[in-house]
C-alpha cells in the first residue's frame, strides 16, 4: 500500500470498520481521494497534471486540507470531465466521495471548522433505461449453454441470475450454508443480508448441479463456495462474465456487451412486468434506495399501447358507431 497521510488512512479504516463498506467501495474512495489530492497539489505547485501518478501525497498535512475550497472541487471535477473524459456517473461518484470525506473530517474527527463540500452539487445523470433480454431471448439464452464440463454449474448460475436477480458479486459469494430449503441468503452491498425464495427452476437447477458436478469437484477442495472452478476454487466475477459471453455467443443472440448485470436487469424487468410491486422488487434486489428500483418500471411502448386498447370503454373506431 502506498504511504498515506494519517487523516486519509483513518478515514478509509472508518469506511470499513464503522460504515461497513466493502473493500471494493473502499478502494474506489481511496482512488478518488488520492487523485483529488494529487491534482490539487499539482495545481498549487504549478506541476503538470499529465503525470499525477508520480506525485506522492504522503507528506500532505491537515493544513493542506483546511485550505481546500468549493472552487477547488469544481476545478477538479472540470479536470475529470475535460481531461479524463469521466462520465457524469463517474463524476457523481467522486462528488459522493468528497462529501463523505469532508463530512467525516468535520463531524467525526473535528479536524476542520467548515465543510467545503457541503454545497457541492452532484452532476446531473441522464438515467438510461436498463438493457435486458425479452422472455423469448432469455429462454433462448438458457437453452444454449454449451454442453461441456461445467454445463450443470453454468446452467444453475444463469438460472439464479435470471430468476433471483442477483448481482455478480452476490452470486460468486454464495456458499453451501447459504442455501436452506427453498431459500438462499444473499450478502449484498455493505454486508446487508436478505433471504430470497427459490422457484422450481432454481431448486431443480441447483439439485442437478450438486449431484452431477459439485460432489465430484468437492473431492479436490475444502472450499465451501457454492460455485466452484475445475480446480475447486471459488469463481470470480471476471470468470462469470466470460461464461455469460460464451453463452451469448453460443445462443446466437449476439447481444451487445451482455453481462451478468444485464441478466439482473432482465430478471428485475420480467418480475415487474409479471406483477411484482415496486416495494417487493426493492427487497428482492437488495436496493437501499427505492429510486434505484424505479428504473425497472419501464414498460415497452407496445405494452403501454395495449393497456389503452384493452380499456373496456374503448370501441373499434367506426364512423357508423357514432351517435348523431
Automatic annotation (TrEMBL):
SUPFAM superfamilies in the cross-refs: DNA breaking-rejoining enzymes (SSF56349)
UniProt entry keywords in alphabetical sequence: Cell cycle, Cell division, Chromosome partition, Cytoplasm, DNA integration, DNA recombination, DNA-binding
Residues in Tyr recombinase domain copies: 128-309
InterPro entries per record: CB, DNA_brk_join_enz, Integrase-like_cat_sf, Integrase_catalytic, Integrase_recombinase_N, Tyrosine_recombinase_XerCD
A Pfam family assignment: Phage_integrase
PROSITE patterns documented for this protein: CB (PS51900), TYR_RECOMBINASE (PS51898)
Transmembrane recorded as keyword: no
Domain Core-binding (CB): 2-106
Gene Ontology molecular function terms on file: DNA binding
GO process annotations (BP): cell division; chromosome segregation; DNA integration; DNA recombination
Compartments in which it is found: Cytoplasm
Name by which UniProt lists this protein: Recombinase XerC
Source organism of the structure: Candidatus Kurthia intestinigallinarum
Lineage: Bacteria, Bacillati, Bacillota, Bacilli, Bacillales
Amino acid at each position: 500500500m502506498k504511504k498515506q497521510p494519517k487523516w486519509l488512512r483513518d478515514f478509509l479504516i472508518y469506511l470499513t470498520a464503522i460504515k461497513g463498506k466493502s473493500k471494493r467501495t473502499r478502494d474506489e474512495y481511496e482512488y478518488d481521494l488520492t487523485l483529488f489530492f494529487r491534482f490539487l497539489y499539482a495545481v498549487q505547485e504549478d506541476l503538470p497534471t499529465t503525470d499525477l501518478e508520480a506525485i506522492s501525497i504522503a507528506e500532505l498535512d491537515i493544513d493542506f486540507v483546511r485550505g481546500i475550497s468549493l472552487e477547488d472541487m469544481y476545478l477538479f471535477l472540470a479536470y475529470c470531465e475535460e481531461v479524463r473524459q469521466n462520465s457524469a456517473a463517474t463524476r457523481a461518484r467522486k462528488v459522493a466521495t468528497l462529501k463523505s470525506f469532508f463530512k467525516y473530517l468535520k463531524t467525526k474527527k473535528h479536524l476542520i471548522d467548515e465543510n467545503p463540500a457541503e454545497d457541492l452539487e452532484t452532476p446531473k445523470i441522464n438515467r438510461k433505461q436498463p438493457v435486458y433480454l425479452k422472455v423469448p431471448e432469455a429462454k433462448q439464452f438458457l437453452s444454449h449453454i454449451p454442453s461441456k464440463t461445467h454445463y450443470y454449474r453454468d446452467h444453475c448460475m444463469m438460472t439464479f441470475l435470471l430468476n433471483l436477480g442477483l448481482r455478480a458479486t452476490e452470486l460468486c459469494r454464495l456458499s453451501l450454508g447459504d442455501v436452506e430449503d427453498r431459500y438462499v441468503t444473499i450478502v449484498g452491498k455493505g454486508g446487508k443480508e436478505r433471504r430470497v425464495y427459490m422457484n422450481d427452476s432454481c431448486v431443480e437447477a441447483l439439485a442437478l448441479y450438486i449431484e452431477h458436478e459439485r460432489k465430484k469437484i468437492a473431492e479436490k477442495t475444502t472450499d465451501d463456495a457454492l460455485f466452484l472452478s475445475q480446480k475447486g476454487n471459488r469463481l470470480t466475477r471476471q470468470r462469470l462474465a466470460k461464461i455469460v459471453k460464451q453463452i451469448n455467443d453460443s445462443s446466437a443472440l449476439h447481444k451487445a456487451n451482455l453481462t451478468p448485470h444485464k441478466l439482473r436487469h432482465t430478471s428485475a424487468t420480467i418480475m415487474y412486468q409479471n406483477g411484482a410491486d415496486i416495494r417487493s422488487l426493492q427487497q428482492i434486489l437488495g436496493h437501499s434506495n427505492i429510486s434505484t428500483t424505479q428504473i425497472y418500471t419501464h414498460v415497452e411502448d407496445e405494452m403501454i399501447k395495449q393497456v389503452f386498447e384493452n380499456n373496456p370503454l374503448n370501441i373499434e373506431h367506426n364512423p357508423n358507431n357514432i351517435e348523431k
